[in-house]
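Subject: two folds for Thursday's group meeting

Dear M.,

Sorry for the delay on this. The cluster queue was jammed most of the week, so I only got both jobs back this morning. I'm pasting them in the order they finished. Each block is the input sequence followed by the predicted structure tokens. Could you check whether the formatting survives your parser before we put anything on slides? The first protein is the one we discussed after the seminar.
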Amino acid sequence: MRIRELQKHLEELIFVGQAHRIGIIKELHQRPDTYEGIAKRMNFDARSTWVLLEALAEMSYLTIDNGVYSVPHEIYERLVDEGGQDYEGDFWLFLLYLINPWKTLPYVLKHGEPDKSSYKNFSISDFIKGMDSPWKKRIAPEVVNICLENLPEAKIVADIGGAPGTIAKVFAQRGINTIVYDLPESMQVMADELSRITNIEVQTGDATKELPKGPYDIAFLGNLCHGQSPEDNVRIIEMCYKHLHDKGLIVIFDNLRGESYRGATLALHMITQSPKGDVYSREEYYEWLKGTGFRDLRVENLSDSTWQLIIGRK
């Protein structure tokens, strides 16, 4: 990417993200207004508000008609409609946070661990809700289809590390009893919403120490393993084996190093945020799975080549 294009994307992330954070886009959706009007409504400086709104219009996040600023429908779907399939506002806020740990790479290289001072603006709500993002909603039916094609008789699924609920909702829609299991602080974000959905049961705990009581037919590990050490992943896989029915499946939804087109870059994310996280290869997963007793190992490539499914049968 050329430097001017890089500058353009960085400006868009930060300025649009901040405008979303302070609520100005939502406010203008509720009632389009002039810059003087919205500045008065939100108690902002008029000149600074005009400069921001002009820039948002230049970046196509607002439209202007006779001095009145309004929100295009596409931007409403992306940054206002929180219940919609295309809403990405929480992920914008999480991206703004991520700039802090990313900037600590020199510290990480020197000390071999994240700079915990960069965590200070972390929001568990932005993170969990951000993981229920449009790309994941689009790919969730494909993921569930592959799981059920490999085990059509499945009746119970444990979605381990599944607090965002994206995959669990699709399993539940297919009539599968689904346990959504995650850390208490993560589950707190979505527990009320998920608990109201038929076929979903919410449970809390630390997957590196214990799992929901089995037996279940599918142990689904979604975006979990790249945040764990190899030792913790082996422990989780061993517990999955113990809790699965005979011939049950383990399905790992993650990036494979050397196969995901963003795998090595995600590993950079992890070393700035997770003390022991990394992105692992197919060979490493196969070694852990075979060592535990899983067989018929295979990798399924998804339509979004960022992600792969690693599947094993008990």
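Second protein, same layout:
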Amino acid sequence: MVKKKAYAFLSLSLVFLFILTACSQGKESAKTENGDGKEVTIQYWHANIEEERVELLKELIEEFERQNPGIHVQQVPVPEEDLPNKISAAMGANQLPAIIESGIEQMLLLSEEEVSDTKLHEEIINEIGKDDFFKGVLDTTKAPNGNGYLGVPMYGWVQGIWYNKQLFEEKGLEPPTTWENILKAAKAFHDPANKKYGIVIGTQKDQFTEQTFSQFALSNNATIFDEKGNVNVDTPEMAESLDFYKELAKYTPPGAESWREAKEMYLSGRVPMAMYSTYIMGDLSQNTQLAKSTGFAIPEKKNKSSFGQITSFVITNTVSENERNAAKQFTKFLMEKENYIKFLHMSAGGQNPTRKSIAEDPEYLDHETLKAFGEVASQIPFALENLQRFDVINGKIYPKMSDVSAQFIISEAIYNMTEHGVKTDEVIKTVKDKIEKVMK
């Protein structure tokens, strides 16, 4: 009995020693050069947790590894809602991966913590071809200090006005691009007696309302901050934008509206136009007739303004130089035409290319979801050229805007104005006071 215990103890000890040795070797291989015959392993975190997306990424990784012997990529799917906590925990333990696929909030966090290789991102963008990226995409990923980029922009969704071209033609109306044309169409189609309305825009106290309003405000050069970072809402341009939005809201369905109503009302044919992101394309493609009749427009007054979110590859500077080089190679591999198109087609329409050449490439457009929209499909990604956000002024990001958005200061003001009749000057004063408190 004693002998068996001794053997068992010895066996467990050997197993433990083997695990320690393997971990040590794995850790060493992740920090050695692949050019001298040794291997390098990098981790790639992303939020594409759906089984089919994980499988597609696995295929792309296998092809990359075949073309790049000695480099191994471990994909780590992370639910989007868990990513902030996972990043924070990894930073605390100094165990960040080589690549994190993330949106603007996480990119800003990593940059503020000085763990993002912003100069390497710029190097990759330049090597791919800076002129091929949409201007709005680069503006919204430029590092706040102007030193490089927060990440390498991989894809983005964009928001605008989806409208039924056939109905517009029947009424002899121009596409809803200018403020005048948008309001004219909303009035022409508004028929509440038959439960049909002119448009759906955000009027609820939520992020969607801030996003939809931002497109009208920024198209009129109405900003939250000026170029020096001072609160800049008390302007004629902002007052004019709020007045117009309040007028337009008269032609929405009764009650405070959000993204759910926008999608449902347009898909059911109860409104001829609604503001929504490109993620509506999947649902629209199921109705072939409606998809073919659907156009896409962005508000325009003094300039054109779309809203959207860019997802980028952030390469961290906490890993070894060899790992950063491997991360650079993998990023550039995914941006190569054939691989990039496969990557984007994981969510066709939702994931729009950040590169102009790909947006109009026949191979990119050769997808069932995109083909349902005809020539409109190639036009939609170009709205990223005019991408504008309240937190970006002349290509400089103001991180404080995230605090303003988190407290729903803008959307609450819209809600009070459209649902409770609060006057424009009162709304502006309240917004200004609240934002100035946030800035302290």
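Two things I noticed about the second structure. Confidence is low (pLDDT under 50) at residues 1-35. The two ends are 72 Å apart (CA to CA).

Cheers,
T.
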